[in-house]
Amino acid sequence: MLPEVWERVLHEAGPYAHTIQFYFQGEPLLNKNLAQMVSEAHAIGLYTIVSTNAQAMTEETAEALIRAGLSRIIVSMDGLSQESYGAYRVGGDIQRSKDALRW
Question: Which one, of 47, 21, 17, lies nearest residue 34 by Cα?
Answer without folding.
Answer: 21
